[in-house]
């Protein structure tokens, strides 16, 4: 079984949301159905990045890292072409 750390981008206003889940497809559907209060007002969401881990703690640790300043910088570098092509 895999555990996922994922990054969503709001199509409405380009906000990023970082989370972790054991069923990525189900979790994305929940976000887009408005079942998650923090993401409800920025619908719809698009999955732009994910990583798979074999251990839940590793996935959660990666989520917390991506939420730090250094982690956000890493994401911006990894997704440089994606963000560049948005404009």
**Taking all residues together, what is the mean pLDDT?**
95
Order of helices and strands: EEHHEHHH
Strand count: 3
Annotated CATH architecture = 3-Layer(aba) Sandwich
Would you kindly provide a written description of the structure presented here, covering whatever features stand out?
The chain has a single domain, classed as 3-Layer(aba) Sandwich (GIY-YIG endonuclease). Helix content is 45%, strand content 26%. The chain has helices spanning 24-32, 37-40, 56-66, 69-78, 80-84; strands spanning 3-10, 16-21, 45-53. A three-stranded antiparallel beta sheet has the order 2-1-3.
Task: Please outline what is shown here.
With 87 residues, the chain is an alpha+beta fold. 45% of the residues lie in helices and 26% in strands.
